[in-house]
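Shift notes (night). Ran Chalcone isomerase domain-containing protein while the centrifuge was going.
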Amino acid sequence: MKLKFLLPLVGAVFCGPLMAQWQPVGNAEYTWGPFHVYTVGLYSENGHYQANERPLMFSVRYEKPIEGKNFAITLVKEMEAQKLSTDDTTAWLKKMQQIFPDFSPNDILNFIALEDRGYFVLNDTILDHEFDAKFTQAFIDIWLSPKSSFSKLQPQLTGKEKSGHDFQEFKLHPSSEPFDEESTMPELPPNYDQRNNLPG
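Came back to this:
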C-alpha cells in the first residue's frame, strides 16, 4: 500500500480542501449490538448541510479495531443497494481494499467530497488514490440518501438532532491499542438483522 504524506508538493495539490475551515454539522454513533463501532461526523464550510452541497467532509472515528478490507466491503454493499453499476462497485471495492489499512481505535478516516472528485485521508496521511465524481456521490449517499441503511443516523449527522459526542473527539489521538486480529469484530452492514441470527 502506497501512502502520500502531507509534504509541500502534495499540499500544493490538495491545499484548498485540506486547509479549508471545516465547520461541524453533526455526528452520530454506529453501533452493532452493544458495541460502539465508530462515530461518523459531517463537516461543511459553513456548519450547515444542504443537498448537493460541496465540498463536504465525512470523518469516521473508530472505537473498535476493524479490518480495512471488511470496511471496504461494508461500504460497497451500501453502494450496491443504490443500484449502481456492478463494474463500478467491483472496481471501487478493489481500490479501497488496496488503500485501506487495518483501523485501530482512535484512528480517524476522512473522506473529502469535492465537485468532481473525492479522496480519503487517514489521520495525517492522504491515501494514494483519487476517486471520481460517481464514487464521491455514491459515498455521500451511503450516509445521506433517504434510501440509506443509515437513515436513523441522519438527523444527528445533519445536525437536526443533537448528538452525545463532542467534535473534539475527532481531533487526532494516538491509538493506545494496536490492531489485534484476534479481537477484530466482523464489520457487518447496518441493515444486518441480528434477531434472525441469534442462537435458539
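The chain has a mean pLDDT of 80. The two ends are 43 Å apart (CA to CA).
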